[in-house]
Inverse folding.
């Protein structure tokens, strides 16, 4: 069912008025006018009535919960159970209650976060409040930019004529954000539908009161959701390992119960018949007794699969998530944005990351463009803002733009000579800035006199138009057929005859205008390599000089753009525009015909110069990448930007370094070329590399794992998404890595220290991440800030991190963790991630140890009680062992323990490597833990047994009874596991100490209370151990037994640790030794010098990846707002202006329109800024 929706910019977009219902028949929509209820979007998982049954159903899908429910059923059978029902009911109810409370909280939070959401469907625009149905749309959730769309006025009839019948035929749902094909049939007429008439999910209505639209695709069928990839349930590697271990534990439990059942059968046949006088029974069948004994021991030995394990894991993860939320060192004061752990189930996975996949624009950079330098007619303008060490210079001289009252006060430039050239009316300089003021698709808004606000398709265009504005060529307004600018104080109206729009193939855009004097001119800007191919041969010398300047700009990591123009003959243009109209209305091969016409007219151009724009890196990005590299984390940058730009940013942020042995560029134009380039790169890194990839043994689901190959030196790899490695199949819904090359690419890339993939689509990003996940035994993390990163953040990578930057909140809402700056990633991984992984591994090792030890004592006791399923401990001790006596100490260790503090973690990033190798907890560690538990259980059973055998008290009374033995054994057990916990902890706090000592004190308090006369008097059957505690614990030999047992249990641990530290110390042992030896605070990290590069690589013009909006500008389907009555705004020499306060955007241009360069008072100084301040002020 499809619907018509009404929008209002003041309304919550999650509730939109329904005006019509349309019945869908395979993309054929018929509708009639009616009024229905609102389409409020439900995002909650539960409601008041369904919460309890649904949540219980989900919880009992966990094998452990179902197992304990099965045990509870067994315990109500008298012939089987030797334990009271409460030993299982109490822990089970606690687990279910805690988990239910957590699920309810998560559902409430998720629902609250989705109250304020963006539009949830793809719309066909019908009409709006603006003249001729113009609407302004912000697409930050799609591409980070702002653009405009419109629809013809003829379709007003769709909403206001009755009866109302129409039909829409359109393409099926697909992921192409830049294309749409459809036909609207109404009143015998057919209207062509294209992408300009579609409002995609994720758009936000701006500067428009209301609009009406027809829903074409909703929910998962929208283009944005088609690009988001498949959402998957994320589990940590420890969770997956735990599932395997739990299955093993179940098997081992069945084995133990079978052994004891067989023992019962043998005992009943040989000895049991002799006890019928004392134990009368109706049947004397050893086989049936053995069968019952098997299930009895399933109940008694159930603690080998502790139900409290899952509750404890959830509490630990929740606590470590709070540490991330509360970390003030990950708080970004400028935007008032704290770090946020949006999930509580992946914390320990942060300590095992091997591959980081990062977006570039807005993630590594600020997505704030600054007009930095330019070259005009062979002369370079603009001063270096960095010194030879890479530090930003303090530029005291500021250009005075007072001659231009329309200038943006936030614009900064540091070369007076360019202003002087403008004032001296240099012809080439004027032509340069005139081109910047005319050749664009920017929209200008001027609500008050002189207060200009630019809405641009990309930040680059906003910065360039703002630069022209400040140097005297002010773009003020436009209509479909004209552009109004102010040239050095003079109002000029240019007739806009054609826009030759940008796309990824052309890599340039042009406009054809007629000046007020009647002169026809074509102005063109684009990538320098593309412009050079179309220059007149007379420009050869100027081209050589400009190339030198472009190389210099590229060495500084600037984004460059070449500018050229030509004058047109009137007669030729009239012929050309007629052919252009015919091609533009063609139904077949429209784009091909237009491209031929563009190629024809865009030749013999005259070079004017080039611009250089700085996309500023975020603070601390180079230092963060360097730290992560030292931690053996491989960083891959997946960007939609062009190769040269991404490569230069790679050098700027230390991802690529001059010290590398080589940086391989893969840019072949055929499958064979790409394959050969990959093999050549691999041979250069490892000459003896085999042709076939090396695999580990086959893993789960039949997928083999590519092993890591050791190479000598460090290498980088840059690969273009437009090579044949990334192919676009004939089916438009999918993009795929070419199957025949994926292993070649993966093997080569994994041998490199850094990888940059350029010109990749959102789905290609996800497929690169999926390729690494599929063939590498490694944990991956994806980080980005835009909706085009959602596919790899949400659906592919093990962990997704969203940066709340300039491109909306889609990445943040789809992420597992979020923060405001890329530099916080090193703290998230090297501190929080490593600590969380270390704590979880210690917790699991200790938890299995204490529960296996507890359970194995039952096993040994069975051989001394005739395999009768009698418990060795008191029932109350069995119930409270995991819930009270040992719960808080292990939680204290798991929440507060740390081997070294955060400073030492940054000083020694190699501490992160053990987590990548799963050294702290693995199958091997589990079996070591089981062997240690087996040894400890033997000590805990046989030492007290021998000590109590034929023993009497000091007064001669007998103490060798079952209850005294049970008390001694459980006391020895509690002391042994508490001492073991002390050896596990590296960082003692007051809370840890209180938990350990308090738990022991709680044990004795509860024991003396339970074994008191009063409790026995109240309920004799529940408290049979009357007087046992006071009669046993006052004997010296009992305490000597406890001491001896505890020492013997921990002796192997002490011995093993001493030998390991002496013979083969780990990186943790070495660093902790340094920590103990350190007497002073470590010095701050040395500042890495910024190496200036003189490279032939040049960044090209960074247009948006989407098709431009030139056709829309010239279509005549929109109308500018009524112009204000205004003067040119310029004053002659000697005049002053005092009332003008600029409001437009500066070269620090941002698609959101928020001021980017304003200084914020009382803003927290980052560690990087603080360090620079200290060092720069040093004498």
């Amino acid at each position: 069912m499809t619907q018509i929706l009404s929008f209002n910019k003041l309304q919550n977009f999650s509730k939109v008025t329904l005006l019509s219902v349309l019945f869908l028949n395979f993309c054929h929509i018929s509708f009639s006018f009616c009024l229905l209820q609102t389409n409020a979007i439900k995002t909650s998982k539960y409601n008041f009535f369904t919460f309890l049954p649904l949540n219980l159903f989900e919880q009992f899908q966990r094998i452990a919960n179902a197992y304990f429910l099965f045990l509870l059923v067994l315990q109500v059978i008298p012939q089987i159970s030797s334990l009271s029902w409460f030993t299982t009911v109490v822990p089970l109810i606690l687990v279910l209650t805690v988990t239910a409370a957590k699920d309810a909280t998560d559902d409430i939070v998720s629902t609250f976060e989705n109250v304020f959401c963006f539009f949830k469907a793809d719309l066909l625009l019908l009409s709006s409040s603006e003249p001729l149905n113009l609407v302004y749309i912000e697409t930050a959730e799609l591409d980070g930019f702002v653009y405009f769309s419109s629809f013809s006025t003829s379709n007003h009839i769709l909403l206001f004529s009755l009866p109302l019948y129409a039909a829409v035929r359109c393409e099926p749902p697909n992921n192409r954000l830049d294309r749409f094909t459809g036909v609207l049939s109404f009143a015998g007429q057919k209207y062509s539908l294209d992408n300009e008439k579609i409002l995609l999910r994720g758009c936000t209505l701006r500067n428009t009161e209301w609009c009406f639209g027809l829903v074409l695709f909703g929910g998962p069928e929208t283009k944005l959701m088609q690009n988001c990839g498949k959402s998957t349930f994320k589990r940590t590697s420890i969770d997956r390992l735990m599932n395997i271990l739990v299955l093993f534990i179940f098997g081992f439990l069945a084995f133990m119960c079978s052994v004891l059942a067989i023992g019962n059968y043998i005992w009943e046949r040989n000895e049991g018949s002799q006890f019928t006088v004392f134990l009368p029974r109706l049947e004397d069948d050893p086989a049936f007794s053995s069968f019952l004994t098997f299930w009895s021991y399933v109940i008694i030995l159930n603690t080998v699969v502790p139900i409290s394990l899952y509750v404890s894991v959830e509490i630990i993860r929740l606590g470590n998530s709070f540490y991330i939320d509360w970390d003030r060192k990950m708080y970004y004061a400028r935007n008032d944005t704290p770090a946020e752990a949006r999930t509580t189930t992946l914390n320990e996975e942060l300590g095992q990351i091997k591959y980081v996949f990062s977006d570039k624009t807005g993630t590594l950079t600020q997505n704030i463009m600054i007009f930095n330098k330019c070259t005009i007619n062979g002369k370079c303008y603009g001063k270096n803002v960095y010194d030879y060490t890479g530090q930003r210079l303090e530029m005291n001289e500021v250009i005075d733009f007072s001659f231009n009252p329309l200038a943006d006060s936030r614009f900064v430039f540091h070369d007076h000579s360019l202003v002087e050239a403008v004032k001296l009316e240099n012809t080439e300089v004027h032509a340069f800035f005139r081109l910047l003021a005319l050749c664009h698709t920017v929209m200008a808004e001027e609500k008050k006199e002189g207060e200009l606000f630019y809405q641009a398709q990309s930040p680059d265009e906003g910065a360039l138009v703002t630069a022209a504005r400040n140097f005297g060529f002010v773009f003020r307004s436009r209509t479909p057929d004209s552009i109004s600018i102010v040239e050095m104080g003079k109002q000029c109206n240019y007739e806009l005859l054609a826009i030759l729009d940008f796309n990824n193939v052309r890599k340039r855009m042009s406009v054809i205008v007629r000046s007020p004097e009647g002169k026809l001119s074509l102005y063109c800007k684009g990538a320098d390599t593309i412009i050079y191919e179309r220059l007149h041969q007379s420009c050869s010398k100027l081209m050589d000089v400009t190339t030198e300047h472009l190389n210099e700009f590229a060495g500084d990591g600037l984004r460059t753009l070449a500018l050229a123009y030509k004058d047109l003959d009137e007669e030729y243009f009239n012929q050309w525009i007629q052919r252009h109209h015919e091609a533009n209305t063609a139904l077949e091969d429209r784009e091909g015909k237009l491209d031929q016409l563009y190629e024809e007219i865009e030749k013999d151009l005259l070079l004017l110069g080039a611009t250089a724009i700085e996309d500023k890196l975020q603070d601390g990005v180079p230092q963060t990448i360097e730290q992560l590299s030292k931690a053996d984390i491989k960083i891959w940058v997946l960007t939609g930007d062009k190769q040269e730009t991404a490569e230069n940013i790679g050098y700027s942020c230390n991802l690529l370094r001059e010290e590398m042995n080589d940086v391989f560029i893969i840019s072949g134009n055929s499958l064979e070329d790409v394959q050969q380039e990959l093999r050549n790169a691999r041979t250069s890194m490892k000459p003896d590399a085999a042709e076939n990839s090396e695999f580990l043994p086959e893993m789960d689901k039949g997928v083999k794992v590519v092993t890591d190959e050791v190479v000598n030196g460090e290498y980088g790899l840059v690969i273009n998404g437009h090579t044949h490695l990334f192919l676009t199949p004939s089916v438009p819904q999918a993009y795929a890595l070419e199957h025949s090359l994926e292993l070649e690419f993966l093997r080569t890339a994994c041998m490199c220290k850094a990888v940059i993939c350029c010109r990749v689509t959102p789905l290609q990003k996800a497929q690169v991440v999926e390729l690494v996940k599929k063939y590498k035994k490694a944990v991956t993390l994806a980080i980005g800030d835009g909706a085009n990163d959602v596919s790899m953040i949400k659906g592919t990578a093990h962990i997704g991190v969203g940066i709340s930057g300039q491109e909306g909140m889609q990445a943040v809402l789809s992420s597992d963790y979020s923060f405001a700056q890329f530099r916080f990633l090193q703290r998230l991984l090297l501190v929080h991630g490593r600590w969380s992984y270390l704590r979880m591994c210690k917790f699991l090792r200790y938890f299995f140890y204490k529960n296996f030890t507890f359970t194995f004592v039952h096993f040994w006791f069975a051989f001394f009680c005739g395999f009768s399923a009698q418990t060795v401990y008191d029932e109350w001790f069995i119930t409270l062992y995991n819930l009270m006596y040992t719960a808080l100490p292990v939680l204290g260790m798991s929440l507060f323990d740390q081997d070294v503090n955060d400073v030492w973690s940054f000083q020694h990033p190699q501490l992160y490597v053990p987590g990548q190798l799963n050294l702290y907890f693995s199958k091997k560690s589990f079996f070591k833990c089981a062997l240690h538990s087996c040894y400890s259980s033997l000590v805990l059973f046989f030492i007290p047994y021998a000590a109590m055998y034929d023993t009497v008290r000091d007064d001669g009374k007998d103490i060798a009874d079952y209850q005294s033995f049970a008390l001694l054994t459980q006391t020895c057990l509690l002391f042994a596991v508490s001492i073991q916990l002390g050896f596990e902890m590296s960082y003692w706090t007051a809370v840890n100490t209180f938990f350990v000592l308090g738990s022991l004190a709680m044990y004795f308090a509860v024991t003396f209370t339970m074994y008191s006369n009063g409790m026995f008097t109240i309920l004799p059957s529940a408290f049979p151990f009357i007087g046992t505690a006071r009669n046993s614990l006052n004997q010296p030999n009992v305490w000597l037994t406890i001491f001896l047992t505890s020492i013997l249990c921990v002796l192997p641990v002490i011995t093993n640790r001493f030998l390991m530290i002496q013979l083969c110390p780990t990186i943790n042992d070495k660093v902790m030794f340094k920590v103990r030896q350190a007497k002073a605070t470590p010095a701050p990290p040395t500042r890495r010098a910024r190496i200036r590069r003189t490279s032939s690589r040049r960044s090209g013009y960074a247009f948006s990846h989407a098709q431009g909006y030139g056709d829309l500008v010239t279509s005549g389907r929109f109308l500018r707002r009524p112009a204000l009555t205004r003067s040119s705004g310029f004053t002659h020499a000697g005049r002053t202006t005092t009332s003008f306060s600029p409001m437009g955007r500066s070269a620090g241009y941002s698609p959101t329109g928020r001021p980017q360069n304003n200084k914020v008072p009382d803003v927290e100084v980052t560690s990087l800024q603080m360090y620079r301040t200290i060092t720069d002020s040093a004498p």
